């Protein structure tokens, strides 16, 4: 047998002592889960020395792996770990391993002799394995052998309990899967799964539960795979005889096994007949697979219905269109060195990002200015108590969490979703932490760290590290606190007028449309004067990464900020570090010397520069040199807007002796401006983009299957129509022939969504889908934007006025297109909408002192539909008795056809006003409350109770928000004024029309109010009225189309219920429109119209149905 082989053998450890031990806390109610891991590590190291590993198990016990026999003896003698009483014992299974020895010479030896002889090699137990010669296992249940089975005796042939399978003659049945085969058959699907689990476990070196989960995830569940979606009751799929080899094809025995069988036959006997049989079997299997895939896709797409939530809808749409793209790690090149390892790539990107924000990246002249300025320290010591430095309150924290968007977590792994689910006690602790940071002027060190995700810039070379944009992921706890601080900062900047009016980005009431409209207005005015207009669009290099932090803090110091607020911003900007993540690899820590992190909340308000044109280019460059910014002449663009046809020289503008390129068209904030302002270069790419997006709708629907009409319209409005709507108030001034190029997109989308036939009239498509034509939609968006601009104080669009000489020029030259504001004023004048819009004050209340409003509801436990009016009257009398010292006031609002009014009833007087017909009843209710407060303001009495039947108005006042109704903001502001004058005002809700005299009187005088109250209209009311007015003009045009086939079925425009079955809904839609394949396909193929053989008239839908 040869010399004895020295241990260790393969898979055997050389240690002859137990290396794994379990430590349990002696107290049964306690575990190591609540013990600090640092305390455990120090206690183990102090007791037995440094061990190989220490892990916390799910049960709360500790699993310790020792490194020597001495440590094993010491750990068994331990009775306590620091101050914790414990007990230690060897692990049951980890200290041993199982192996198989195949040797015929050991067949006749006893197990005891083998155990004794191999004991010196660490063998503790020997067990024989009996294998059946037919190649199958003798165990009926997976996981153990028959001799170790502790369950009930079960037959491996018929799955019945109580007898062996040796003499069983019953019908075969598997005990594992209930299939028609014996339990130890290798064709059992459960056996195959278990075999895959074992293989995965040993190949990937993972545990059995992990291997089982992995195999389960890779195995499609029944009913969700391509093959399982096929209707098994269908005769084609249930049983099919192969026409070539007479092989029976079923779903349990599909054709792929047939093709494999025939392939093996062809390999052994390569004849033409066998080759043909194999090809036919393979084609049949491919046909069945494609059918099953199609059925699976149809079922998936048809699950998109009107009841599907938006989240699930977009999840399925993205999955269907393959929008989820796998991240690919790039290969970077720096000089002659190539970096392909993820860690090297991360370090290379981190080094590049750090150098961009380093002091060496600035120009030498700015470095001198920077060093000279930073010698003067900024002392933000507050000599007096400033309101914005007060401690934060709970409503500020709740507001910040409610308005935060779900973003990726920072280094701490805490998400916004976790913070939103905190209870009141936890939120109080979090607020206490924030206030300590605020008042003690300390900043957590972990908040200085950021995880940077490199994002490749569009169209750039992925091998260049400079072509990546660093997006910083910071702590969500820190960003929540930033939201709270940012609200106070913005309030103070707006109130002090520190932000210029032309700044629209990251500002309440502003949008990118403001700058688009301003540019278009300047170009139109220069065209009418037959002048040139030169527009330069500057590109600031690394504006975020090179922002001068001291310059930002110096600006805040000059604005007069002192105390906690500027100190927090100073701590926020200082000592910032970052790590770059590429895949699962993190780079080393790098220092961000200057700049602000892209992705934080405060960054957008830290980086604002003023822009000017040709005469101020040098001044702008000098300003950038003094503040650490650099303008790229290569990326900047110059456009000469001119409609003259003669040849003229382009302007020669230079930035540091580098010429700025002059182009014929430029993309500005998503809209392409060409030099003649025809907008054709913008509409053509927009149409191409929308045509590609139409493929989403085509993929999700067919005429016989797919998502329903409501879901398709939702997708169309979000994906395609939103792109068409953007900037339409500017490019809507293009020629009608240019704008009609977008109508085909709109019509094609409506045909796909509704399933209408291709020859259907577009007017019928608008009505059947309840979608406005694009020209009416552009009017709607332009008018609403104009109204919105009028409601914002100091809005740049509301300040635009056309001088008198330009009015005369436009009148003398009618071919010239008016600017946006004048076009919209003409549209509103034609619609008789010359009204004044109420200006909204977004900063009426400071974030740290919002009003608190509450009201009484003595009728909360009574249902109006099941309670007698006399009961409400008795409850109200009891309520009046309780508050008899308060003077009662009743308010109400009323709206009917052509009349809107409000009424206020005092104990000795009444007050009623008529409001504008555009006002809503909700506005009337709020105006009535506001009028009541104004009337009691000069009174010498101080106790009043205001009763109203509008629960909606009271709920609105009790939930303060900067976006609430403008009259509600006026009420809260006036209430605060009255409370400061020692007024005690209580609000109470009363039910309407139950016989309460004061409420009935207020309702009556509101209905017949005649005195008109001149008030500006809130934006929400004028918006609602204009939209309804626009939808009323649409039916007027629809009434003129009397020859339209749909008009006879649907004379009034309105929503029809959608059928959930796509095939039926499409048929019904085509029948309603009157255009079907049978009646109108001749228009497509150039054939003659089908004629009825009886009446010799062209076939239509009407006689077919009737």
UniProtKB/TrEMBL annotation:
<dbReference type="InterPro" id="IPR012337">
    <property type="entry name" value="RNaseH-like_sf"/>
</dbReference>
<dbReference type="GO" id="GO:0003676">
    <property type="term" value="F:nucleic acid binding"/>
</dbReference>
<dbReference type="InterPro" id="IPR000477">
    <property type="entry name" value="RT_dom"/>
</dbReference>
<dbReference type="Pfam" id="PF00078">
    <property type="entry name" value="RVT_1"/>
</dbReference>
<keyword id="KW-0808">Transferase</keyword>
<dbReference type="GO" id="GO:0003964">
    <property type="term" value="F:RNA-directed DNA polymerase activity"/>
</dbReference>
<dbReference type="Pfam" id="PF00075">
    <property type="entry name" value="RNase_H"/>
</dbReference>
<dbReference type="InterPro" id="IPR002156">
    <property type="entry name" value="RNaseH_domain"/>
</dbReference>
<dbReference type="InterPro" id="IPR043502">
    <property type="entry name" value="DNA/RNA_pol_sf"/>
</dbReference>
<dbReference type="GO" id="GO:0004523">
    <property type="term" value="F:RNA-DNA hybrid ribonuclease activity"/>
</dbReference>
<protein>
    <submittedName>
        <fullName>Putative RNA-directed DNA polymerase from transposon X-element</fullName>
    </submittedName>
</protein>
<dbReference type="InterPro" id="IPR036397">
    <property type="entry name" value="RNaseH_sf"/>
</dbReference>
<feature type="domain" description="RNase H type-1">
    <location>
        <begin position="883"/>
        <end position="1011"/>
    </location>
</feature>
<keyword id="KW-0695">RNA-directed DNA polymerase</keyword>
<keyword id="KW-0548">Nucleotidyltransferase</keyword>
<dbReference type="InterPro" id="IPR052560">
    <property type="entry name" value="RdDP_mobile_element"/>
</dbReference>
<dbReference type="GO" id="GO:0042575">
    <property type="term" value="C:DNA polymerase complex"/>
</dbReference>
């Amino acid at each position: 047998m040869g010399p004895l082989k020295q241990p260790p053998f393969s898979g055997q450890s050389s240690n002859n002592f137990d290396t794994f031990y379990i430590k349990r806390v002696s107290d049964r109610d306690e575990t190591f889960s609540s013990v600090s891991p640092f305390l455990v590590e120090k206690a183990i190291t102090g007791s037995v020395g440094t061990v190989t590993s220490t892990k916390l198990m799910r049960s709360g016990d500790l699993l310790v792996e020792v490194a020597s026999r001495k440590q094993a003896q010491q750990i068994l003698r331990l009775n306590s770990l620091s101050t914790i009483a414990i007990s230690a014992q060897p692990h049951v299974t980890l200290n041993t391993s199982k192996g198989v020895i195949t040797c015929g010479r050991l067949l006749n030896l006893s197990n005891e002799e083998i155990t004794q002889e191999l004991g010196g090699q660490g063998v503790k137990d020997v067990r024989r394995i009996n294998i059946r010669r037919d190649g199958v296992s003798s165990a009926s249940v997976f996981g153990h052998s028959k001799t170790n089975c502790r369950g009930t005796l079960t037959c491996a042939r018929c799955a019945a309990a109580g007898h062996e399978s040796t003499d069983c003659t019953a019908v075969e049945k598997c005990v594992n899967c209930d299939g028609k085969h014996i339990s130890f058959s290798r064709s059992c699907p459960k056996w195959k799964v278990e075999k895959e689990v074992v293989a995965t476990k040993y190949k990937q070196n993972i545990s059995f539960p992990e291997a089982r989960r992995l195999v389960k995830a890779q195995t499609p569940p029944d009913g969700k795979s391509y093959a399982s979606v096929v209707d098994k009751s269908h005769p084609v799929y249930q049983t099919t005889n192969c026409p070539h080899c007479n092989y029976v094809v079923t779903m349990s025995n599909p054709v792929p096994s047939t093709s494999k069988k025939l392939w093996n036959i062809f390999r052994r006997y390569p004849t033409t007949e066998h080759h043909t049989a194999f090809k036919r079997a393979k084609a049949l299997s491919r046909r069945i697979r494609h059918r099953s895939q199609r059925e699976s896709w149809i079922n998936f797409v048809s699950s998109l219905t009107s009841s599907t939530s938006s989240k699930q809808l977009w999840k399925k749409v993205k999955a269907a269109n393959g929008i989820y793209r796998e991240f690919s790690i790039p290969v970077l090149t720096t000089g002659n060195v190539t970096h392909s390892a993820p860690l090297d790539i991360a370090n290379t990107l981190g080094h590049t990002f750090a150098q961009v924000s380093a002091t060496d990246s600035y120009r030498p002249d700015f470095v001198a200015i920077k060093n000279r300025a930073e010698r003067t320290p900024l002392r933000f010591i507050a000599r007096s108590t400033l309101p914005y430095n007060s401690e934060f309150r709970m409503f500020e924290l709740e507001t910040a969490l409610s308005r935060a968007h779900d973003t990726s977590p920072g280094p701490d792994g805490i998400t916004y979703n976790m913070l939103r689910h905190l209870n009141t006690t936890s939120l109080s602790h979090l607020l206490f932490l924030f206030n300590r940071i605020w008042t003690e002027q300390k900043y957590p060190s972990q908040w200085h760290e950021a995880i940077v995700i490199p994002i490749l810039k569009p169209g750039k070379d992925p091998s260049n590290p400079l072509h990546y944009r660093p997006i910083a992921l910071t702590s969500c706890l820190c960003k929540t606190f930033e939201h709270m601080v940012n609200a106070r900062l913005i309030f103070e900047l707006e109130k002090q007028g520190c932000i210029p009016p032309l700044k629209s980005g990251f500002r309440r009431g502003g949008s990118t449309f403001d700058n688009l409209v301003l540019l278009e207005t300047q170009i139109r005015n220069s065209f009418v004067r037959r002048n040139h207009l030169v527009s330069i669009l500057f590109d600031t290099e690394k504006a975020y990464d090179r922002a001068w932090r001291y310059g930002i803090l110096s600006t805040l110091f000059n604005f007069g900020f002192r105390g906690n607020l500027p100190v927090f911003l100073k701590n926020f900007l200082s000592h910032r570090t970052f790590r770059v993540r590429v895949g699962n690899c993190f780079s080393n820590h790098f220092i961000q010397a200057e700049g602000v992190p892209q992705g934080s909340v405060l960054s957008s308000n830290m980086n604002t520069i003023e822009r000017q044109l040709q005469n101020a280019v040098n001044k702008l460059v000098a300003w950038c040199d003094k503040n650490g910014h650099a303008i790229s002449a290569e990326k900047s663009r110059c456009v000469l807007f001119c409609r003259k046809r003669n040849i003229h020289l382009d302007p020669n503008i230079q930035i540091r002796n580098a010429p700025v390129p002059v182009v014929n068209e430029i993309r500005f904030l998503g809209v392409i401006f060409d030099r003649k302002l025809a907008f054709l270069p913008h509409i053509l790419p927009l149409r191409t983009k929308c045509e590609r997006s139409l493929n989403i709708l085509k993929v999700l629907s067919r005429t016989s299957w797919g998502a329903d009409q409501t879901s398709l319209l939702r997708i169309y409005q979000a994906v395609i129509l939103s792109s068409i709507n953007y900037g339409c108030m500017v490019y809507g001034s293009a020629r009608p022939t240019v704008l009609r190029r977008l109508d085909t997109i709109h019509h094609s989308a409506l045909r796909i969504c509704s399933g209408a036939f291709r020859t259907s009239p577009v007017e019928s498509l608008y009505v059947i889908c309840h979608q406005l034509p694009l020209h009416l939609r552009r009017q709607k968006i332009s008018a609403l934007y104009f109204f919105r601009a009028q409601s914002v104080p100091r809005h740049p669009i509301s300040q635009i006025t056309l001088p008198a000489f330009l009015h005369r020029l436009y009148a003398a030259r009618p071919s010239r297109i008016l600017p946006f504001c004048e076009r919209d004023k003409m549209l509103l004048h034609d619609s008789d909408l010359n009204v004044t819009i109420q200006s909204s004050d977004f900063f009426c209340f400071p974030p740290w002192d919002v009003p608190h409003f509450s009201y009484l509801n003595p009728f909360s436990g009574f249902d109006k539909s099941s309670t007698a009016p006399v009961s409400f009257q008795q409850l109200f009398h009891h309520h009046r008795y309780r508050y008899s010292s308060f003077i009662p006031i009743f308010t109400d609002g009323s709206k009917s056809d052509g009349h809107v009014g409000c009424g206020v009833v005092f104990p000795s007087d009444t007050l009623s006003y008529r409001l504008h017909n555009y006002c809503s009843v909700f506005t009337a209710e709020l105006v009535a409350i506001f009028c009541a407060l104004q009337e009691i303001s000069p009174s010498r009495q101080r106790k009043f109770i205001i009763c109203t039947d509008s629960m909606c108005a009271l709920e609105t006042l009790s939930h303060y928000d900067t976006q609430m109704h403008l009259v509600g903001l006026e009420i809260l502001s006036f209430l605060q004024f009255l409370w400061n004058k020692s007024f005690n005002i209580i609000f109470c809700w009363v039910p309407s029309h139950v016989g309460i005299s004061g409420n009935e009187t207020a309702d009556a005088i509101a209905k017949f109010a005649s005195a008109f109250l001149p008030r500006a209209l809130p934006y929400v009311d004028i918006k609602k009225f204009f939209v309804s007015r626009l939808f009323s003009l649409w039916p007027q045009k629809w009434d003129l189309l009397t020859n339209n086939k749909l008009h006879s079925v649907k004379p009034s425009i309105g929503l029809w219920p959608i059928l959930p079955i796509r095939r039926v809904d499409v048929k019904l839609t085509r029948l309603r429109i009157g255009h079907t394949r049978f009646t109108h396909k001749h228009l497509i193929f150039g054939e003659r119209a089908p004629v009825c053989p009886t009446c010799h008239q062209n076939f239509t839908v009407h006689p077919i149905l009737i």
